[in-house]
Structure formats: structure tokens, C-alpha cells
Automatic annotation (TrEMBL):
Name of the protein in question: Stress response protein (Rds1)
InterPro entries in the record: Rds1
Coiled coil ranges: none
Signal peptide start-end: 1-20
Pfam name, any one: Ferritin_2
DNA damage as UniProt keyword: no
Chain segments annotated as transmembrane: none
Chain spans, region Disordered: 32-71
Assigned keywords, A-Z: Signal
């Protein structure tokens, strides 16, 4: 049996069954059915933006911002939030037996939202609102970006990169998914939800387009994991989790299209909202007038001078500044000499063409690798309409913080000049045999090696001097 094709035909479905002995057509009883639309009973709510038509205008913002800086309340309670013990963490179960009466059969005591209260799928605090609004911006850029790559690169461009028409259809479907995600999150905010913006992308080839998507979907996924469990509204968190499960699959797919191992990690890191906004905002060119403003901080950019180029047979031979722009999420330059490229190299272990999975005999990076760094001064205009400004409250940087999975690992920074220095890639593990640093990771300069864990990473924000990405593995 080679294929099964469904064709709607009046009151039956004709199913051509193609076998080695020929084709046999059978009919299956059916009626022609359409989903309800508009005001019809049971009709689905409309999308906030078209899932299939058009992309926004693109390019750098050239106007004058009418508002500058992140959204602020007139007063702030403190410069930092002190770390303190948790007085409610008292539950301990020595034998696995139930410790309290059960609310109903087969339901253990405890949990949130399990007492019969009717769920309300709306944000419940400023924290909820600003977190979900950030998520809306992520969904909108993905909706536009996926469509845009298909528009500016032809089918032949994709074929030259080892990608087929079917791969294009997959990217197109992922764009349609984003219209649903943007609608879901917008509906939980209400009428003041952010609207679709315009964007300024860095890529010039199909490989660079895919590389950029690998990075963008990583900070999009990690950015959402970072705030989900902190939401006041657990109802909102439940729905966002169900969208984020799809975002995680998109991240793995783009790695496969780039010829990278799709999931070289055991755990997906969560990052604070200001990390997410720092990486995302610099690719948003302009937004509609009176678009809701965000509260999150924009850190100065941290650049990895010798960022590994996944297009190379040996990524550790990457030259300095082998990227296509000057923003932290910009993709690696794919237009390297053919003899140094792994794209059409059919030798196992040295091939980076699209695949379900790839073994790379020479990893992109390795523990102990010297990593050259430079960083910006604060005060740079970024984000929608150049209306946000990078800032930091940190002192002079002394450490490099690395985040890929559960662990935040520090290495010492050696400063060699004005806003430049180096460190060495750490060799720590999450659990035995699982390198803590792998895949598309996050890297920051800090003025202290503050102890933080996955649930309270935000406490590090006042100590961050600059923030960037690191392509490991």
C-alpha cells in the first residue's frame, strides 16, 4: 500500500487505494459538512489577524519616537527584591500516603483551582497582563516572519538549500498556527492587547532565514516558560501551556531544517521577561499608534565575537564576526566558501543539510573553548519606533552567566579593553552525562555570581550588564 487519499464526493468519500496490483476505488458513506461561521450557533471566534494573507512592511525605523522608555508606574517599592526563605514550603511526605481528607473520590487534597470555582480565562494582575502582552508580540513576529521567508525566497532558493516544496508548506502551516496563538493570547488581554507591528529582519539567504528562526523560536519558547508558573491566573497559564507545546515543536523543526540535532537538551530553560524583550524588541521596527507599551527592561547587547557558524564543516574554525548583522540574535553568514560549507557535504558526521537528526563529529563548540566577547554601552534606542532605551543597574562586569537547561553557571570574565574581554565555555553537567550548556543558550555579563535557580532567575536582573545568545553543542 502506497497512499490513501480522501476526496469529498457528494454523499460519499471516494478513496483511491493504490497498491502494487493497481488502483481500486471504494466509497465510504459521508455527507458534505462545513463548520459554522459568523453568527451561526457554535461558530468559532474570529482571528485577530489573517493567518494566510500578506506580510507587514519591513525595514529599520526612521521616524522620531513620541514616547521613550518602558512603561512605568509613578512609584517603585525598591531597587531590588531581597531573596528570603519561603515560609509556606512545609509539606513533607515520608511514605507517599495521603495526609489530608480527599475532596472527592480519586482527588487528593491540595492543588490550585480544584475547589469547583468556575475558571475565568483572563489575566488577573499587572504581572499577568505584561507577560501575556510580551507573548502576543512573540506570536505576531512569528506569524509575519514565517510568511515573509516564504515570500522573499523562491522554491528554487529553498531547493538550493536542500529544502523542498513540502518543507515550505510546513513553514506555511506553522505561520497559520501563530494566528491562532496570537488570537488566544489577545483574547485573554481584551481590547488593549498589542497589535501587529512591522519588523526589520537580518537574513539574506534561506539558510540564514532558518538560522534566525532557530534563535527566535528559542527565546520565544524559553521566554514563555520563564513566566508561566508565576502567573496569578492559572486558567491563563493552562491555555498558554497548550500553545507553548506547539512552539517547542517548531523550535525543534527549525533545528532539523538547519541540519542540527533537534533537541540536544534534556530540559528547556525558562528566562525572565526582560531577557526575552531584550532579544525580541530590536527586531520590531514600528507598531501602530497607541499600541500598548511594555514594562520590561532592555539590556545592552552582548556579542560573541567567535560565535560558532553552523554552516561550517568545522564550526570551531569560525572566523571573528561571522554573522550577518550587529544584533544579538542575527544568524551566521551562510555565504562561506563551498569547500568550507557543510550544507552539501554528504559525509556522515560533517553534513548539515536538512534531516530528522544529525550527528556532528566536530561539535559547534566544546567545554574549555575560549569565547571572545564585546558589549554595548547602555542608552541605545531600540524596539518599536525606537521608543525603548537599553539600560543597566549593574556595576562593572566580573562574571559570565550561562543558561541552557536547569543550571545557571558562572565563569570568570577577563576584561581586555573597553567593553571587551574573554572567558572559557564551562564544562558543568545537569545530571551525569548531560552537559549543562547545549543548543541555543543564553549568556550574560554580571557584576556578581548571585545564586539563583530556575524559579527566581529574575533576581539576577539588577546585576546584568549585557545580554546575548550563544550557539553551543
Amino acid at each position: 500500500m502506497k497512499s490513501l487519499i480522501w476526496i469529498l464526493a457528494g454523499s460519499a468519500v471516494a478513496v483511491p487505494l493504490v497498491s502494487d496490483s493497481g488502483t481500486k476505488v471504494i466509497s465510504i458513506p459521508a455527507i458534505e459538512t462545513q463548520p459554522p461561521r459568523g453568527n451561526e450557533p457554535g461558530a468559532a471566534p474570529p482571528l485577530v489577524n489573517s493567518a494566510t494573507t500578506g506580510v507587514t512592511t519591513h525595514g529599520a525605523y526612521s521616524g522620531t519616537p513620541t514616547t521613550t522608555g518602558a512603561e512605568q508606574y509613578p512609584s517603585t517599592l525598591a531597587a531590588t527584591i531581597p531573596i528570603q526563605p519561603n515560609p509556606t514550603a512545609t509539606y513533607y511526605n515520608p511514605n507517599g500516603k495521603l495526609t489530608e481528607p480527599m475532596p472527592m473520590p480519586y482527588m487528593p487534597a491540595g492543588g490550585v483551582g480544584t475547589n469547583g470555582t468556575v475558571p475565568v480565562y483572563m489575566v488577573q494582575s499587572d504581572f499577568d497582563y505584561q507577560s501575556v502582552a510580551l507573548g502576543v508580540h512573540q506570536e505576531y513576529i512569528e506569524l509575519d516572519l514565517f510568511h515573509y521567508g516564504l515570500e522573499v525566497f523562491s522554491e528554487q532558493d529553498f531547493l538550493d538549500a536542500g529544502l523542498t516544496v513540502e518543507d515550505r508548506r510546513l513553514i506555511e502551516y506553522m505561520a497559520i498556527q501563530e494566528a491562532g496563538h496570537a488570537t488566544l493570547l489577545s483574547n485573554m488581554l481584551g481590547e488593549s492587547a498589542p497589535r501587529q507591528c512591522t519588523y526589520h529582519y537580518p537574513f539574506k539567504t534561506v539558510r540564514e532565514f532558518i538560522d534566525f528562526n532557530v534563535k527566535l523560536t528559542r527565546w520565544g519558547e524559553s521566554g514563555t516558560w520563564g513566566w508561566l508558573s508565576h502567573l496569578n491566573s492559572k486558567e491563563v497559564a493552562t491555555l498558554v501551556v497548550e500553545a507553548e507545546a506547539i512552539e517547542a515543536r517548531q523550535q525543534a523543526i527549525f533545528r532539523q531544517l538547519l541540519g542540527l540535532q533537534p533537541m540536544p537538551i534534556w530540559f528547556a530553560a525558562g528566562i525572565p521577561q526582560s531577557w526575552h524583550w531584550t532579544l525580541l524588541a530590536q527586531y520590531i521596527s514600528s507598531c501602530p499608534a497607541n499600541n500598548t507599551r511594555l514594562v520590561w527592561q532592555n539590556f545592552p547587547n552582548l556579542y560573541v565575537v567567535n560565535q560558532a557558524n553552523p554552516n561550517r564543516i568545522n564550526a570551531n574554525a569560525t572566523e571573528a564576526w561571522e554573522v550577518v548583522g550587529n544584533r544579538t540574535g542575527d544568524p551566521s553568514n551562510s555565504t562561506i566558501p563551498a569547500g568550507q560549507s557543510c550544507v552539501h557535504n554528504n559525509v556522515t558526521g560533517y553534513n548539515c543539510g536538512p534531516a530528522i537528526s544529525r550527528d556532528k563529529y566536530d561539535p559547534l563548540t566544546f567545554p574549555g573553548r575560549k569565547v571572545e566577547l564585546t558589549w554595548d554601552e547602555p542608552g541605545r534606542a531600540v524596539g518599536p519606533n525606537n521608543s525603548y532605551v537599553t539600560s543597566t543597574t549593574a556595576g562593572q562586569p566580573s562574571f559570565v552567566a550561562w543558561l541552557s537547561q536547569l543550571n545557571l553557571t558562572y565563569t570568570e570574565l577577563t576584561v581586555t579593553g573597553q567593553n571587551k574581554g574573554y572567558t572559557y565555555q564551562p564544562a558543568s553537567e545537569v545530571f551525569e552525562t548531560d552537559p549543562a550548556l547545549n543548543g541555543t543558550a543564553f549568556i550574560a555579563l554580571t557584576d556578581t555570581n548571585l545564586f539563583v535557580t530556575p524559579y527566581n532567575l529574575t533576581m539576577l536582573n539588577p546585576h546584568i550588564r549585557a545580554l546575548g545568545l550563544y550557539q553551543a553543542g
